[in-house]
């Protein structure tokens, strides 16, 4: 039986896609390359190409810092789109994480949730990238765990066993962690595999395809679903009242 929302002790968050609007950020950062692409580019189709390339790079080089992952993805897209290489453009794309905007409801929702829960980041970026995003989020997180700390990228279950072990050090058992994320591929599938309860923040509700995220495996599931962080925070407030 799934617990009530107010019965959890810690909320672990995917950041990019859930709190930060990474699709808008990626689309903006890709504009210089898209301007040199020989064929017209639709947004969702372009983001799907990014998703495929990113998943491959992360699987092939799990210890590579995220800025370098993005740079390598950019290099592969340059080749795939038959554009002339531009080293400065590739570097800027790799460093673009801090330019990506937060969703409008993120900061207020996090401030409300902070009153009741331990807030934890479990992200595929590195600390330098996250540090540039943090001012947009409006709260101080109790813990920040990145791929840089763990040496692997989600959806590797090791990222989630790392989270569970670190929470245990604070006396928080696995059943008292609620993982909050948009990506069924990066987050919910490995959360399922490690026995974590999860909340799907379905930021792409009503849209076709998976955007900048690789398609999820069959059978992935979640315990709660909301279309925004604001709606999730409202439900947590209601559960506590």
From the 3D structure, determine the CATH topology of the largest domain: Rossmann fold
Oligomer: single chain
Distance between the termini: 21 Å
Order of helices and strands: EHHHHHHEHEHHEHEEH
> CATH superfamily assignment of the largest domain?
HAD superfamily/HAD-like
Count of DSSP strands: 6
Question: How many helices?
Answer: 11
Q: Helix fraction?
A: 40-55%
Largest sheet, in brief, is:
6 strands, parallel
Q: Which strand order do you get reading across the main beta sheet?
A: 3-2-1-4-5-6
Describe the global form. Answer: globular
CATH C-level class of the largest domain is Alpha Beta
The CATH architecture of the largest domain comes to 3-Layer(aba) Sandwich
Q: Mean pLDDT across all residues, rounded?
A: 96
What attributes does this structure have?
single chain; 241 residues; alpha/beta; DNA polymerase, domain 1; 2 domains; six-stranded parallel sheet; 11 helices; 46% helix; globular
Structure description:
The chain has 241 residues and is of the alpha/beta class. The protein has two domains: 5-21 and 101-240, Rossmann fold (3-Layer(aba) Sandwich), CATH 3.40.50.1000; 23-99, DNA polymerase, domain 1. The protein contains eleven helices and six strands. A six-stranded parallel sheet has the order 3-2-1-4-5-6, with helices on both faces. Helix 10 (184-193) links the parallel strand 4 (177-181) and strand 5 (197-201). The protein is globular and about 55 Å long. The model has no long low-confidence stretch (mean pLDDT 96).
